[in-house]
Amino acid sequence: MTTRPASHAGSWYSNDGSTLLHGLEEWLARVNPSVSGHGTLPQPGARVIIAPHAGYAYSGPAAAWAYRALDISQVKRVFLLGPSHHKYLTGCALSKHTKYATPLGDLPLDLSTISQLRSSGKFEDMSVGTDSAEHSLEMHLPYIRHTVSKDCDTANIPPLIPILVGGTEPSTEKTYGSLFAPFLADPSNLFIISSDFCHWGSRFSYTYYLPSSASHPKDGYSLSKRDKPSVPPIYESIARIDRLTMQAIESGSHDALLASLRDTGNTVCGRHPIGVVMAGIETLKRQGELAPEKGLFQFVRYEQSTEVLEAKDSSVSYASAFAVL
User: Fold this and answer.
1) ∠ CA 269-112-51, rounded to 5°
2) Which helix (H) or strand (E) holds 301?
3) d(CA 90, CA 38)
4) What is the DSSP string of 123-158?
């Protein structure tokens, strides 16, 4: 019986429970529940979200839009998929802990479901060090703990299934998608996908720029540090690149997402967990278990850490979306 500590508390977000709770509730309260073109939040049947995982000072407000969209009326367990930042993986990995700690209280892990996944032979185990170091999973834990514990006592908090996703090939994403399809079909399961969007700047080795004259995503070019284009400003080009990725995700086509990423090279760190879940939704549709209009992501929030004007600067983008199953 081991508990993963909240290793990023006190640096990436507050380690004081009361302060943390106040921040989460304030960000959630700021979300406009009536989103143009998307109805009222939360959306009935919204069991899948994409939300960012940077320090809360940067991405906490954007993440609130995704969590406000979640329908938790039937939740019994929560799948959390995040990209691996520290360990090289070609597939996915599971936690060996029994609980994950947060300043708001512990989240129990669903040991039965984790054992079921492990028995498939398609998962590695995270080392304790890898598990502790990975922020893409941890940054969602306070939001998950706060969201799913609203209508239950501590003894009945829906358990968590954390999954670390590596640099998966498209065929591997489809394989994992098929594996997760039955879990996606279960109305008592939530799926949280952890991802930031464009990491732009020389420190990320990505300075792709789309001038206003570019008619195709491939018509851009990389900037050098001395460049300062203005038509459009760099931050608008970054937003265009992100919109192309978001439109591909909203299309519901896993292959369309892969093609968009090839065109622009967009540095979406959670592209692999997004791909896995999209492939799983497509599996359900092929099997006739999900209507064509279901399972399509809708983006409700987009932000950038900085409005970049010069190529020597950098920024990270944050986007939140939900899908109704």
Assistant:
1) 25
2) strand 298-304
3) 36
4) EEE--HHHHHH-HHHHTTHHHHHHHHTTTS-GGGPP
Yes or no: say if 99 and 3 are a contact pair by the CB < 8 Å rule. yes
Q: Is 102 left (phi over 0), alpha (psi -120 to 50) or beta?
A: beta
Give the separation between CA 57 and CA 235, rounded to whole angstroms: 20
Percent of the chain clearing pLDDT 90 (strictly above): 93
Mean pLDDT of the chain: 96
Residue pair 145/104 in contact (Cβ under 8 Å)? The answer is: yes
DSSP state of 298: E
Query: H helices of 139-233, where?
Result: 141-148, 170-185
For 198-238, the pLDDT digits (tens) are 999 999 999 999 999 999 999 999 999 899 999 999 999 99
pTM (predicted TM-score):
0.96
Q: What is the largest CA-CA distance in the chain?
A: 59
Side-chain half-sphere CA neighbours of 54 within 13 A: 21
